Every structure is written in C-alpha cells, then in structure tokens.
Amino acid sequence: MATSSASSASERNFISMQQMAMPSFAVTSPPSHGGTLSALHARHSQRLHKRRVHSQVRAVAQTQLQYQKLGDSDLFISEVTLGTMTFGEQNTEKEAHDIIAYSFDQGINILDTAEIYPVPVNKETQGRTDLYIGRWMQSKPRDKIILATKVAGYSERSAFLRDNAEVVRVDAANIKESVEKSLKRLSTDYIDLLQIHWPDRYVALFGEFSYNPTKWRPSIPFEEQLKAFQELIDEGKVTAMFAISVFRMRPHMDLWSNGVCACCKDSRPSKDLFPLAAWAKKKIDKIRRSFLWKGEENANGGHCLVNWQTVTRPKDLGGLGVPDLERFERALRLRWLWQEWVDDSKPWSGSELPCSDDDHLLFNSSIIISLGDGAKTKFWHHSWLDGQAPKYLAPNLFRLVSRTNQTVQKELRNNNWMHKLGRKITSATHIEEFVSLWIRIQDVHLQQGVQDTISWRWTNDGNFSTRLAYRIQFRVDLVEVCHPNNCNVGLLAYSPLAGGVLTGKYLDEATLEYVKLAKKHGLTPVQLALGFVRDRPFTASSIIGATTMDQLKENIDAFTSTPRPLPQEVLDGIEDLFKRYKDPAFL
C-alpha cells in the first residue's frame, strides 16, 4: 500500500493511535533531607506530587479509547468500531472520508464493512462503500488499519453479487469469489477480519420477525465453510475469521488433532449394541478429563478445570469435538434401530434391542416413513400417521392396549385395532381420541407387495448417518428443532405476552424512565446506553454508525466522557428499571 511521505500532525497521531496516550513523567531519586522539619515537609510535598501525577495519569486514561485483544487472534482493536453501511447511500464520498478521518484521529482503529454495503442493497450501489474506504486507505499506512468485512449469506435477491449465479450461497466457491472482489474494491491485498454476514441455512432475517417453517432448506456444511476460510488464511488474504471456537482452536489445532483429541476419541466404544455400564463410563471420562487438562500420558486423579459440556460439543457448535459417551452410545443404538428397518439379514433381526424410550423417541422423530404394505411399521410406536405415532395422538387409548407391537398391516386388517378397543372405551376422552384416530386412518391405503421404507431427516440423500445422529442431540435452536423436517416437536408457549410487556402499555413509560435515570446522574441517554454496553465484560468493541459529524462526535464522546466504569448507583438504577420493564426475551 502507498504511504504519503509528508507526515502531518494528524498522520503522526494516526500512526500512534494504537498506543494509549499517557503523559511522560521523569522519575528521579528523592534527595536526602534527614529528619529535620524541612525534610518532613519535603517528603510530604513529594507524596502530594505523586498523588497529583497518578491522578493525572488516571484522568488521561479515562479520556482515551481503550484497546483489547480480539479473542486469541493477534488483533488489538479499539473499543469502538466504525460502521460504514451508509457510505454511498446516505453519505457522499467526501462525507465518508471526513467521518473515517475524524474517527481514526480519535483513536478508532477498526472499520466494519460488507460486500453488500451500502444499504438498502441494490445492484447499482453495491460495493460503493468498499470503494470509498479503499480510496481513503490508499494514502494511509495499511498496517495501522484493522479492516473487517463480511461474506453475504444465502440470498436469491442478491444474485448480482456473484458471476453467473442464480442464488448466493455460503459455500467454498462463493466465499472465495466474495473475498477476491472485496480485496479489489478495497484496494488491499488482505482482510483482517472476515465474517459470515448471515447463515446459509434459513433463518428469519430482513423484516421477518418469525421463523417460517415452509422456507426450511438443506444448508452448506459448516465444515466446508471453515475449510474455505482456512485456505484464505493460508494464502495470506485473510488474517482472522469469525466462527465459534475458531480463535480458540487454531493455535492448538495440531495438538488437538494429534494428541489429546486422538486419545479421547480412541476411548469411545466402537460398537454399542449393549449399553456400557455407568461405572465404566465414569472411569473412562475421569481418564479423559484428567488427560485433557494435564496433557500427560499417564494422568491419575486431579480436577478438570474445563467445561466438559462445552468440550464434548462438535467443533462447529462451539466445542472441541471430544465425543460425549452417552450421546455417542445413543447414536450407535439409533444405527441398530435403522438397520433393523433396512436389513432383515442380520442374525439379531426381530430381537428386542436394548434401546430406551428416549432412543426410540429420537429415532422416530428423525425418520420419515413411506408406508407400503404396512408389514414393518409398528401401528402404535412408529410415526406413520400424518407424521406422528398413534400412541401420541391417542395416549389414553394406548394405555388400554395390551399388545402394542403389532404392525400397521395386522391392525388395519379387518379393523383389528378397533375391535381390540371396543369394550375398553369407557369415557368421553376415549371416544374423542377414538373418533380422531379413525378419521385419520380413513385416508390410509396400504400397497400390497410394496415394502415400507424410511428416510433419515438429517441428510439430503435420506441415508442414516451416525455422525448426524450424534450431532442432532446438541441442537438447541428451539424453532429449528420444532420444524417438521427436523425433530417435529410441539412448543408449549409460556407467557406469550411477556408478562404484559408485549401489550405495549409499558413502551413509552420505559423510555421516559431511562431518560430520567440518565439525567439524574448527569448523563445523556446516549452516554447511559453506550456506557452500559462498553462496560459489559463480554463486549470486545461496539459498532457505531453516523451520518453526520455531530452524531459521530456524540457517540465517540460517550465512551471517553462517561465514567469508567459506570458508577454502581447507575447500574443499580438500570437493574431496577429492567425488573420493571423487562426484555421479553428474558422473562
């Protein structure tokens, strides 16, 4: 990158912005005054001088932006990040350059952009933000600028982002094309922080306020995305990437892949038709935890100081990929349930498998049954009737049945299921469930000579995968889990009005109370809000945006002029208001 030879005062300040501006005070040895009155006076004066010096140092530190390491990367970023999504739409290039210049003069060292900027997104202006930033950077030292940008997620409306594409995906080809184009627009040869703007899988975004089950679609595997990111890092085009656990894992990848993880993975059972005894699993986990923490070949006893529940999660879900024995055993048992369906040649076929109710529930939620002659499908236990098992559709009737393992073929022949229940129905509830079940069954037509088949919900080809059977046990996104193509779980919604918050009756009142709290402590609402976010222990940097210099100055000043940290009485006031006007997501 080109660097101007003439260094102005602002450029010198720009070059040294990452260092905290602290005054320099000469340290000299105090003179010896003996024990006289003048000596005591001199020592007292020295103490007062030191106090004034320390006070000055603290005062200067209070008025400077702070910097901190981003994760385990080598990036030290300012506590304020300049957002740029209005550059090229609401702001001209000159206004954009003035905003960037002022921000960096104040100590900001990180810019956040994206390939889709400016917003709103359209073909005519797309990429203009990057061009503005690139032209500003041409006369600045590149190594003093931390540049963050984002790869667009799945989009049918923004196909113009790619060459000859009908839809934008987050696969390896799209990621690499995105980075190459971003580098060209930004006039640089590397990006400091690369992020995925939104996921490849369907999520409610851009004006959608709820999950739409009809838009569910298969997504690009996260492993493919990470590999593409890593290749860009290896090529020197990207310094760091944003993804859960990547910052933590990369420096130790060789150790984990060749040492600890290899040892821990080898301790898992290769086959698990019969459950491993609880005492054995505890002993194995004790060895694994001890080795994971100590890193020794022979480790006995000791305490594991890592979060084991996090460690056993898959890597792309925030863990280290060390198998959880309970979940892995269940995945293997699901494999036997699968084979019981698809392969009659097994010597144990037809025998009762040692599977728990939870195993059967997860298996039935993970398969899609295509009914043929009904000879394999269990009438009560399998999810063959409108995607659900009759024992859940009619739980009170199920309790009346003595033989629950009969097939659909046998139970539908001559309406056997009805005859078996005939004299046992004694209540209105029984009648309601019976009628409901009977109505559903009227639409079922068996196909003689055609075998029942099943497909696995979690794979594109419908074939069983032990790896995915393990992974789905870590799925925590409630809406996605509830999707019929996923676990098909029904939600019992608690407090849908969020304790009254969603009625709107507290809306104006809450805003006024927070403004009053700010004024009470001599703060503006901006200082109160940004100061609170600034002081959260998990906040690395706050992205601010501004279309005018006045907005920009007020936002930056809120970080440097607001007491650091906010006084306890202010935090107590926020806590009290939060108890009265709760965030619906945390009720």
Automatic annotation (TrEMBL):
<dbReference type="InterPro" id="IPR023210">
    <property type="entry name" value="NADP_OxRdtase_dom"/>
</dbReference>
<feature type="domain" description="NADP-dependent oxidoreductase">
    <location>
        <begin position="80"/>
        <end position="240"/>
    </location>
</feature>
<feature type="domain" description="NADP-dependent oxidoreductase">
    <location>
        <begin position="477"/>
        <end position="574"/>
    </location>
</feature>
<keyword id="KW-0560">Oxidoreductase</keyword>
<dbReference type="GO" id="GO:0016491">
    <property type="term" value="F:oxidoreductase activity"/>
</dbReference>
<dbReference type="InterPro" id="IPR036812">
    <property type="entry name" value="NAD(P)_OxRdtase_dom_sf"/>
</dbReference>
<dbReference type="Pfam" id="PF00248">
    <property type="entry name" value="Aldo_ket_red"/>
</dbReference>
<protein>
    <recommendedName>
        <fullName>NADP-dependent oxidoreductase domain-containing protein</fullName>
    </recommendedName>
</protein>
<dbReference type="InterPro" id="IPR050523">
    <property type="entry name" value="AKR_Detox_Biosynth"/>
</dbReference>
